[in-house]
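tool=predict chain=A
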Amino acid sequence: MQGNPVVSRDEWLTARKALLEKEKEMTRLRDAVNAARLALPWTRVDKAYVFDTPEGRKTLDGLFAGRSQLVIYHFMFGPDWEAGCPSCSFLADHLEGALPHLEHHDVTVTLVSRAPLEKLQAYKTRMGWHLPWVSSYKSDFNFDYHVSFSPDEINSGSIVYNFDMMSPFGDLDELHGLSAFTKNEAGEVLHTYSGYARGLEELLGAMMVLDRAPKGRNEKTIMDFVRRHDEYGPQSQSTCCHSKG
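tool=predict ok
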């Protein structure tokens, strides 16, 4: 047990109202951050990126699938990995459920990874997802959006991630992120937003529920309890987000 005090209903209500004020403050701050995000300037995507898709090779423009907005989740799955990142899989489970709502709100969501398309399709089948998933294999896309890192970058001891220079995470050559795009009247693709690391935490509805459960996230390190959804069981062992297995 956590040792929380057990008090009268009136004492609980007083403490809960005090917390409510902080929750309202957080809600107002989130609204302000969301407004600032929508007010960000946009920048043209001048580089021609090409992706391998189940329908053949497509440009970034082709990934919009007839909608005006494109949200790409940079899913950690390197060319030599045998399976996708467990934590990215956890997030993709959430996107899967939201897919029909997003598509009917003029937003196309697509996963992008550097692993070859056949690996992505096999893993997608295993996970039972319907999310669009394309490969940026042999493309600069992941490197330009700072979610993939070359051996030279890692060996240098410094990478660019989350808009800052930092030390590599060991020999890990893939990290996660999310990028958003739109098109102007001239048909040019515009980059509107990118987010990384814990900046994407609000996308994880299960975490938001745990934040309201009696034991909270009940973790020793961030998301240490997360497994691929077909790996939960009584003998489940801790799996790191950075696992390549």
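The first strand starts at residue 43 and ends at 44. The radius of gyration is 20 Å.
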